[in-house]
C-alpha cells in the first residue's frame, strides 16, 4: 500500500480536477453548503417580533437556545469544512507520518462529533418547531423548515465524512 496514512504517496503536482473529483472533497463541499443554509436561514429569518412588542424572539417556540444552537453548529461546521478542505489540499504534500496521522484523527474525531451534534440539532429544532404556534410564525416558517431539513441532511453528509476519514 501507500504506507502509513498514505505517506508513501506524498509529493507530486497538484491536479485540481482530480482533487475536486475525490469523494471526501465532494462530501466536504456538500456539508459546507448544508451548514451555510442552516445558519443563513436561522440568522436571516429565525428571529421575528410581534407588532405590539418590538423585541425579537426565536421562531422555534420562543426558545432562544434553539436558534443559537442551530447557528452555532452551522457556523462551526462551515468553518471546519473550510479548514479541512485546506487540509485536503495540502495533505498530499505532507510526508511526515505523525502529522498525517494527527490530521486524519482530527478529521475523524471532528466528523464523528459533528454527526452527533447535527442529530441533536435536528431533534431539538424539530421538537421546538412542533411546539411553535402557527399564528405567531407568519414570515419565517419556510426558513425554519429549511433549517430543519438541512440539519437532517447534515447528519448524513457528516456521517459520510466520518466514513471517509475512517
Automatic annotation (TrEMBL):
It is found in: Membrane. The keyword Transmembrane applies. It comes from the Eukaryota. GO terms for cellular component: neuromuscular junction; synaptic vesicle membrane. It is a multi-pass membrane protein. Keywords: Membrane, Transmembrane, Transmembrane helix. The chain crosses the membrane at residues 25-48, 69-91, 103-125, 146-165. Residues 19-166 form the MARVEL domain. Pfam families: MARVEL. PANTHER family: SYNAPTOGYRIN, SYNAPTOGYRIN-2 LIKE PROTEIN-RELATED. Belongs to the synaptogyrin family. This is SNG2 protein.
Amino acid at each position: 500500500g501507500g504506507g502509513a496514512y498514505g505517506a508513501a504517496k506524498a509529493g507530486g503536482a497538484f491536479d485540481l480536477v482530480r482533487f475536486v473529483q475525490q469523494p471526501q472533497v465532494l462530501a466536504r463541499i456538500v456539508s459546507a453548503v448544508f451548514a451555510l443554509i442552516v445558519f443563513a436561514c436561522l440568522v436571516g429569518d429565525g428571529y421575528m417580533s410581534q407588532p405590539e412588542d418590538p423585541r425579537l424572539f426565536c421562531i422555534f417556540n420562543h426558545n432562544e437556545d434553539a436558534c443559537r444552537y442551530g447557528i452555532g453548529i452551522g457556523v462551526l461546521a462551515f468553518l471546519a469544512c473550510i479548514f479541512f478542505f485546506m487540509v485536503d489540499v495540502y495533505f498530499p504534500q505532507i510526508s511526515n507520518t505523525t502529522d498525517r496521522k494527527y490530521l486524519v484523527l482530527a478529521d475523524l474525531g471532528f466528523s464523528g462529533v459533528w454527526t452527533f451534534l447535527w442529530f441533536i440539532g435536528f431533534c431539538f429544532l424539530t421538537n421546538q418547531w412542533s411546539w411553535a404556534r402557527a399564528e405567531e410564525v407568519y414570515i419565517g416558517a419556510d426558513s425554519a423548515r429549511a433549517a430543519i431539513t438541512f440539519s437532517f441532511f447534515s447528519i448524513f453528509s457528516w456521517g459520510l465524512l466520518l466514513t471517509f476519514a475512517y
